[in-house]
């Protein structure tokens, strides 16, 4: 599924989905915390009304004594009904005055039931006033006093349990806040990583597409350039075939030279394209820098009139020998082609705190200041038969090593810096 989404969505759409997910998570976390905090506030209101039970019990107790003094046993104390309504309100929840109480949590129902049972006993003892005689007056009053005291005690216990529950809810809220903070932080870091990864993958794809687009742009030129040496090869073979029995050695040698030169040209053209398109992981190893310089010189046919000055110093470097060799060979070839006749190629090798720095200077001086800004761009070339991909490939290889490459004029000098680590 993820691979299907990856194939069907572009980078912008992927980032939008990730951002929306983060927003939903933040809003969800906020709503959960608001809901718990709202429950806490409502439980806090329940504590106030649970505390009111004690005052209503005392008030009812006083009203009973007043009714007794007035010898009025037919009326119920007004506060007794308020006490019952208050108890039921605490259990079932509801709106009273401007307050909205939440139903009592299930884990507190036993405490409420004990309070309500004590209320029923208190109510029953008050009703016994009607049947009171002179013989049981003390007993009835004692029963009322005792039941009132137990109701006050159970009301106090209910308040304590509600307070404990409120504190537990507060601790839960703190833990949840910490957990959601950690979760949001983790998700945020993960999403930033995912966005970076999407950008990185998109950039790689874009670079790859640009490379192939570049190849497409020069396709027609390459086909034309390849057609010429292939035509020469075919013509030379036709001549060799027709005159195989009547051909002197000099003429035959000349035809083979044509074939060989044409093949070299084809190799030259295709090598630049392959070096530019090929994208593989670095295979780093430690070696002496002088080793790849010597290998590169062995691959190139140097005119006798060109003098090579090698670096005096040598340093070990950890890099991809093959890819770095492509860069050094390319720079040496460019210097040879720039000199054309008599001249000197000077190589230098130094190190600083972070880099091993290689530079190559030629006496050809074929570059201008205007060329420097475009020299590493694909398709830019000053050669008659160049592809314009050689230096672009060099730049990509050096950047893959996390190094730097630059060019300067008067004299023409190319400098590459390869990190030591």
Structure, explained:
The chain has 11 helices and 9 strands. The protein is of the alpha+beta class and 421 residues long. It folds into 3 domains: 2-200, Four Helix Bundle (Hemerythrin (Met), subunit A) (Up-down Bundle); 219-276, Helix Hairpins, CATH 1.10.287; 283-419, Histidine kinase-like ATPase, C-terminal domain (Heat Shock Protein 90, 2-Layer Sandwich). The strands form 3 sheets. The chain has a 5-stranded mixed sheet with strand order 4-6-7-9-8. Strand 1 (94-96) and strand 2 form a beta hairpin.
Write out key terms for the chains shown:
9 strands, Four Helix Bundle (Hemerythrin (Met), subunit A), 3 domains, 66% helix, 421 residues, five-stranded mixed sheet, two-stranded antiparallel sheet
In short:
The chain has helices at residues 2-8, 11-69, 78-92, 109-127, 137-217, 219-242, 249-277, 289-299, 321-339, 369-372, 390-400; strands spanning 94-96, 99-101, 284-288, 306-309, 316-320, 343-351, 355-362, 404-408, 412-419. By secondary structure, the protein is an alpha+beta fold.
**Unreliable runs, pLDDT <50, ≥5 residues?**
1-7
Q: What is the typical, i.e. mean, pLDDT?
A: 78
- Tell me how many strands there are: 9
- The sequence of SSEs as H and E is HHHEEHHHHEHEEHEEHHEE
β content, as a range?
A: 5-15%
Rg on CA atoms, Å: 47 Å
Q: Given this structure, which CATH class of the largest domain is correct? A: Mainly Alpha
- Return the structural class: alpha+beta
What is the oligomeric state here? Answer: single chain
Q: How many structural domains can be distinguished in the coordinates? A: 3
| End-to-end CA span | 40 Å
CATH architecture of the largest domain: Up-down Bundle
Number of helices: 11
């Amino acid at each position: 599924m993820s691979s299907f989404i990856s194939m069907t969505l572009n980078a912008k759409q992927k980032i939008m989905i990730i951002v929306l997910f983060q927003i939903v998570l933040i809003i969800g976390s906020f709503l959960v915390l608001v809901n718990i905090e709202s429950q806490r506030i409502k439980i806090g209101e329940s504590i106030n009304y649970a505390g009111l039970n004690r005052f209503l019990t005392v008030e009812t107790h006083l009203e009973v004594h007043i009714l007794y003094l007035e010898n009025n046993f037919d009326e119920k104390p007004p506060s007794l009904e308020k006490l019952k309504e208050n108890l039921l309100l605490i259990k079932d929840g509801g709106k009273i005055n401007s307050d909205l109480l939440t139903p009592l949590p299930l884990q507190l129902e036993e405490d409420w039931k004990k309070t309500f049972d004590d209320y029923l006993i208190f109510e029953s003892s008050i009703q016994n006033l009607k049947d009171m005689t002179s013989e049981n007056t003390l007993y009835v009053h004692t029963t009322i006093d005792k039941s009132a005291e137990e109701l006050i005690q159970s009301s106090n216990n209910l308040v304590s349990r509600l307070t404990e529950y409120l504190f537990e809810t507060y601790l839960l809220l703190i833990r949840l806040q910490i957990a959601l903070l950690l979760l949001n932080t983790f998700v945020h870091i993960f999403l930033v990583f995912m966005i970076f990864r999407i950008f990185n993958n998109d950039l790689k794809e874009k670079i790859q597409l640009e490379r192939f687009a570049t190849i497409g742009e020069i396709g027609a030129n390459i086909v034309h350039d390849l057609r010429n040496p292939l035509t020469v090869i075919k013509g030379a073979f036709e001549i060799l075939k027709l005159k195989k029995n009547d051909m002197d050695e000099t003429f035959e040698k000349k035809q083979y030279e044509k074939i060989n030169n044409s093949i070299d040209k084809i190799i030259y053209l295709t090598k630049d394209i392959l070096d530019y398109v090929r994208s593989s992981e670095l295979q780093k190893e430690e070696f002496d820098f002088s080793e790849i310089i010597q290998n590169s010189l062995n691959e190139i046919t140097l005119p006798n009139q060109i003098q090579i000055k090698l670096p005096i110093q040598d340093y070990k470097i950890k890099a991809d020998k093959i890819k770095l060799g492509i860069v050094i060979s390319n720079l040496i070839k460019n210097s040879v082609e720039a000199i054309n006749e008599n001249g000197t190629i000077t190589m230098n090798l130094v190190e600083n705190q972070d880099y091993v720095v290689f530079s190559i200077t030629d006496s050809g001086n074929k570059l201008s200041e205007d060329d420097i800004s475009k020299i590493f761009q694909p398709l830019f070339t000053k050669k008659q038969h160049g592809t314009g991909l050689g230096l672009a490939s060099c730049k990509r290889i050096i950047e893959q090593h996390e190094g730097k490459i630059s060019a300067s004029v008067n004299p023409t000098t190319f400098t590459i810096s390869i990190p030591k680590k």
